[in-house]
């Protein structure tokens, strides 16, 4: 055991059975800088903004169209919310039931406290098969643990088979979206990556999406057909039947789940639902929210091992890695309801402009801003994840789009408060926020604050824009210009024209 | 404490520590989730309206649909779809009559085909367990004799699926209720596709690039 491992073991012994933040051995849950700095750089990348603007506009229109087809959409959302809340309230018992069903059907269940433990289990299982290459279905859980890095260190090549994930892997990039990890790349860039990184690619490849998809098919075909080990994540797991499901489009998921002799599935414990009939809710909510389709091309479900059909060895790794830490917070635990549809990313005005990399974590966007800091915990005032709850304008679009009604705006506010409390020395933003809170609590105070707006007109001068403010407000004006306050406020206008108070 | 007991202990502590002051619906003695959404679609299973809607939604996702009045008409429709195919693989229990008009090579998946054999066959013909009109989906049950192992509908590049009117429902909940969750199931909605390039849907990646459906029943003979 390494010194680090011993230290981790000691801290575990002390806090036995207590909710524990995630381990993050490959820094996939934390960036290297805070959101404001990362966002500044991302905003300067006009190509990125064009790519994201185009992709998110496309998907928003498609989603709106298929959601409007269902007159019971709100009822489905409420059911989805209630099923997830019920799951969290019974999570330990449901997991035990699920484990029993999976085992009874020939699966082997492993438990992992953190990322390192999950990776170690998978690496050992792969070594046991003698394989030096594995095919992977896109999975957030294995991105979170850094499984690919762990496999590589053990001499095993991990081949990502989802098209967007393959683009990210080939370009040595990081994912920036749940559903389409390469959403920040346009077709011309993807063509360049393929020409550069695929040894067997047709040199006349064009940037037509169909031709690019065909290039990916040709690149992966032989390796699918020869694969000995497949590694997947899970979209939904059913406690009372032991059924697992993977929702996908391309057929790469079916390949990985069907062709190899051994299947290893890594599942965050929150992916559970209590009963098979719960899928009738989520198989309506997920495709319409994520790709804007009535149904995604392929959904596979399986329970354990089926003699003569598919992998004859099935291992399931149940992963905590910080989820217990999220569950321990009454309001924050809602983040575990997330079904990774990415609708909140696609509607978010902040995400649309900064893209996913600015969030640092592999969980970007509004849900990532509330999930990542809870998974990792906040390690002092300089933890970059403490800046994530501020990566929002609190416009509320994420809640409206969320298929399981996660109240992301309220969670952002709550976590901002927690981040402010964590500061030893209050920042300008803290003071400004606190001042706004005081001003807005009573009408009398609000009126006083409005009078102070007259000062703003002086600051703005003749150009009508305020571009610098004194501390503590400089934290705000460094990043944006403000219009000058109007000569008369709404309340002053109302009093003048309606003669009231 | 082993990992299993440790994770479960953490989750028990967390569950209790984070329990909301007002428990969500479903936490109390009688777990009830508000299932006020539609448990059945607008059209009755197997009827003309539901078949017409399935035809529409399948076509919308780039499957080609042929409707025939009776089971006797299946062979001709299958043959027409297989015009360019020299060989097909079929599950062990596929009704013999469905391929009666096909003059290419037929390989029954019994004994099981190797992956290499499947890679060299032109097409696969199967039945389906249930189809969902609202979403343009059919579900393959690998335990059903006319649907077979998952791999036979995955490796060949062309899939012809025969769906009987009685197996067509309007909504997802009706389909889920008819399925056996302990068997490997594949929900198929159109040929394989990707939205990974600029979030635009493009058909044809790793799964079958061509999907044809023969929809049996609901029409009066001669109405085809």
What can you tell me about this protein's structure?
The complex is a heterodimer of chains A (501) and B (224). Chain A is of the alpha/beta class and 501 residues long. Chain A has a domain at 428-498. Chain A contains 23 helices and twelve strands. In chain A, the strands form three sheets. In chain A, strands 1-10-7-4-2-3 form a six-stranded parallel beta sheet, sandwiched between helices. In chain A, strand 5 and strand 6 form a beta hairpin. Residues 1-14 of chain A have low confidence and may be disordered. Chain B has 224 residues and is of the alpha/beta class. Chain B has one domain: Rossmann fold. Helices cover 21% and strands 24% of the residues of chain B. Chain B has five helices and twelve strands. In chain B, the strands form three sheets. Chain B has a six-stranded parallel beta sheet with strand order 1-12-7-4-2-3, with helices on both faces. Chains A and B meet through helix 3, helix 4, helix 5, strand 1 and helix 9 of A and helix 1, helix 4, helix 5, strand 9 and strand 10 of B. Strand 9 of chain A pairs antiparallel with strand 9 of chain B.
State the share of residues found in helices of chain A, binned by percent: 40-55%
CATH architecture of chain B: 3-Layer(aba) Sandwich
Tally of discrete structural domains of chain B: 1
Main beta sheet of chain A: strand number and arrangement?
6 strands, parallel
The third-level CATH topology of chain B is: Rossmann fold
Main CATH class of chain B: Alpha Beta
- The helix/strand class of chain A is alpha/beta
C-alpha geometry of chain A? globular
State the fourth-level CATH superfamily of chain B: NagB/RpiA/CoA transferase-like
Q: Sketch the major β-sheet of chain B.
A: 6 strands, parallel
* Total DSSP helices of chain A: 23
Could you list some keywords that capture this structure?
heterodimer; A: 501 residues; alpha/beta; 6-stranded parallel sheet; 4-stranded mixed sheet; 23 helices; 12 strands; disordered N terminus; B: 224 residues; Rossmann fold; 5 helices; globular
